[in-house]
From TrEMBL:
Pfam families: Peptidase_A8
Protein family: Belongs to the peptidase A8 family.
Species of origin: Dorea formicigenerans
Assigned keywords, A-Z: Aspartyl protease, Cell membrane, Hydrolase, Membrane, Protease, Transmembrane, Transmembrane helix
Domain of life: Bacteria
GO molecular function list: aspartic-type endopeptidase activity
InterPro entries for this protein: Peptidase_A8 (IPR001872)
Gene Ontology biological process terms from the UniProt entry: proteolysis
GO CC terms, sorted: membrane
Signal peptide: none
Descriptive protein name: Signal peptidase II
Length: 154
């Protein structure tokens, strides 16, 4: 039962992010910015050819290969984890982490770049251009939940 629920949640999370990315890709010009109903949150289309903060964006093939290898390793770890009894909090966190990894890896492998679309209107101009996507949010949530699970395990 837990396995089916986790698999369903994973599919929903990936599809939501990929659906939004597709909408942004089709309906926004690059760097176009639109307000949302959330104060200080904007939607914009920004391409990221590297990892976080455009790290290694000049080496797209390395980024693609590394993403694919890490995503495959994550899938193997998830299979091992879900065969174990208990550990439901860690499993829950890994669903989010894996969903984020799958969505961004898909973008890197198929599109050659990740589509980021969530911006925050920071007062500090350095942070104003930071743009992320739901997959990035999933990775952060997943890392936090699995970290908490490790703390509570002890």
């Amino acid at each position: 039962m837990l396995l089916m629920a986790a698999g369903g949640l994973l599919v929903v999370l990936v599809c939501v992010d990929m659906g939004i990315k597709q909408y942004i890709e089709e309906n926004f010009e690059e760097e176009e910015e639109r307000e949302t109903i959330l104060d200080k949150v904007v939607l914009r289309k920004v391409y990221n050819k590297g990892f976080c903060f455009n790290t290694l964006d000049k080496k797209p093939e390395l980024v693609r290969k590394t993403s694919g290898i890490l995503c495959a390793g994550l899938a193997i770890y998830d299979a091992w984890l879900f065969l174990k009894k208990g550990k439901w909090l860690r499993k829950f966190g890994m669903v989010f982490l894996t969903a984020g990894a799958i969505s961004n890896t898909y973008d890197r492998l198929i599109r050659g770049k990740v589509i980021d679309y969530i911006g925050i209107q920071w007062k500090n101009s350095r942070f104003r251009r930071l743009t992320a996507n739901l997959a990035d949010v999933y990775v952060v949530i997943g890392a936090a939940v699995t970290g908490v699970a490790k703390i509570f395990r002890r």
